[in-house]
Request: fold
Amino acid sequence: MAGPALVIDLAEPLLLATLCELRTMMRELSSHYEEMRPGLFDVSVPATRLGIRNWREGDDSEQEEHRPFLVSLIGPGIGDEDVFDAEHADEPEVEAVLGFRPTHAVNVIAGCNRCLDHVATALLAATVMDVIGGFVKAELRPGHGPDIADLPGMVGIIGGQWPTALGTAEFLRSWVREPGFRLVK
Reply:
């Protein structure tokens, strides 16, 4: 996978019922769906199913293309525990802002890196958050924090030169409408 990625931090493991809801949503949203292990989805999603319309004037084909993603629930007892540990090692600022130490996470990773994939990644992550809850961690370009600090659903910005935004699904949906939106890989 070569595109942008977002991490959704969770305060507790997903309940089986929530994992089933996520599975159903992923299956219904996707034109290609494979669950490689519980909570690890290899999917393709048409941009229009994420609400992306009129992406480029006169280019409807790009919106209908199937955007490839890996959506992966990680953490103790579910999978990729080493990845979870590495992503969450020594994050006292995140814990302080969110008010909890993440126990699990969901990674949303795009398979392509066009501008459309950045928007689609954010909107897919927001859709996943509608089902599972949690807070997204999104790396920002240097100096970009003040531009988005007042967006709805923004919880906080941490870090120095390469800051990280923490927010809700509402934050992601607001951010993609901002001029110059682009995720940091």
Notes: The radius of gyration is 16 Å. The chain has a mean pLDDT of 88.
